[in-house]
């Protein structure tokens, strides 16, 4: 038992179910051009669901601020990763004449294209 929940329970419920739903939620928020704030709001609701799954499936503590904060931090971080990955993809593909990918979660202004556009 680690922090009141076994490693297997944490891996199954929080990491696999909650993390998978958070990744998809973050990507769908970015895909529909919604704000990051809205993605965080949905992540907090998803953290409530993860906490309920711990309670319903494994008789975990339902109303515990400590466990909720741990679940919420994990879910928000995975939501953020999904959101940034999709937004970086959008910016590089839809605005390819201005931006290029800069790693899996970012984009940057394409200096070669920007300077070519300014000199013409």
From TrEMBL:
This is DUF6867 domain-containing protein. It comes from the Bacteria. InterPro entries: DUF6867. Residues 10-109 form the DUF6867 domain. Pfam families: DUF6867 (PF21741). The chain crosses the membrane at residues 39-58, 64-83. Keywords: Membrane, Transmembrane, Transmembrane helix.
């Amino acid at each position: 038992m680690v922090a009141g929940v076994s490693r297997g329970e944490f891996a199954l419920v929080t990491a696999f179910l909650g993390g998978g739903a958070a990744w998809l939620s973050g990507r769908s928020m970015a895909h529909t051009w919604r704000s990051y704030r809205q993605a965080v709001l949905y992540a907090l609701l998803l953290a409530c669901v993860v906490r309920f799954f711990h309670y319903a499936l494994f008789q975990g503590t339902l109303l515990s601020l400590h466990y909720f904060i741990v679940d919420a931090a994990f879910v928000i971080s995975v939501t953020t990763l999904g959101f940034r990955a999709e937004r970086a993809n959008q910016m590089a593909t839809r605005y390819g004449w201005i931006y290029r990918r800069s790693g899996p979660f970012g984009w940057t202004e394409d200096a070669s294209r920007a300077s070519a556009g300014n000199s013409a």
